[in-house]
Design a protein that fits this description.
Layout: H1 5-18, E1 23-26, E2 32-35, E3 41-43, E4 55-60, E5 65-70, E6 75-79, E7 82-83, E8 92-101, H2 109-114, E9 134-138, E10 144-148, E11 157-159, E12 163-166, H3 167-176, E13 182-185
Active site: 146, 162
Signal peptide: 1-25
Pfam families: YkuD (PF03734)
């Protein structure tokens, strides 16, 4: 196996959780949270959902991390990019309503207002496409969990509302995530 910085970061983020070295704490009456050596907290799905159903995703916009649980209880952890500001950040419950490989992209009306120089449309597969290689469309209009070709964005406030992952990570999540997967952004 070839190691890359991205794989190292993802592994470093997941290692304390997987090795059981997490400490428990309680915060904001949301139940126990796990804090690891990277100082971000992981969340137990049971404090946010009644059941796993076909799977659940929790995206923590403060910690810039996405947790994905499959229907059989396996948990996967990924670093993310998050919206640039609180005004662009939507929080709450939604679900995956559609999945697209090599999605095309068009800026939202508010993006066009802020950035009139942006193209009106970028086809799927184009290396300048901000949705990367895969996208999970949420029930909220214009909101996605998607890949990115611009790897500098991961771990930062850099999006216009979406949650971004490295392309290889969104491809893993995409393959394991059926339509109907429940999602919570916190």
């Amino acid at each position: 196996m070839r190691f890359s910085r991205r794989l190292f970061v993802a592994g470093a983020l997941a290692a304390p959780f997987l090795t059981g070295r997490a400490a428990f704490a309680t915060e904001d009456n949301q139940g126990p949270v796990r804090n690891n050596i990277s100082a971000f907290r992981t969340h137990e799905w049971q404090y946010h959902f009644d059941s796993l159903g076909v799977g659940v995703i929790i995206s923590d916009t403060t910690a810039k991390v996405l947790q994905h649980w499959t229907s059989d209880g396996q948990m996967f952890l990924y670093p993310t990019s998050v919206p640039l500001s609180d005004e662009l950040t939507r929080r709450g419950y939604t679900e995956v309503v559609e999945k697209r490989e090599n999605p095309s992209w068009a800026p939202t009306p508010s993006m066009r207002e802020r950035n009139p120089e942006w193209p009106a449309f970028v086809p799927g597969g184009d290396p300048t496409n901000p949705l990367g290689t895969r996208a999970l469309y949420l029930s909220w209009q214009y909101y996605r969990i998607h890949g990115t070709h611009d790897t500098r964005k991961i771990g930062r406030r850099s999006s216009n509302g979406c949650i971004g992952l490295y392309n290889e990570h969104i491809e893993e999540v995409f393959d394991r995530t059926p339509v109907g997967t429940k999602v919570k952004l916190i």
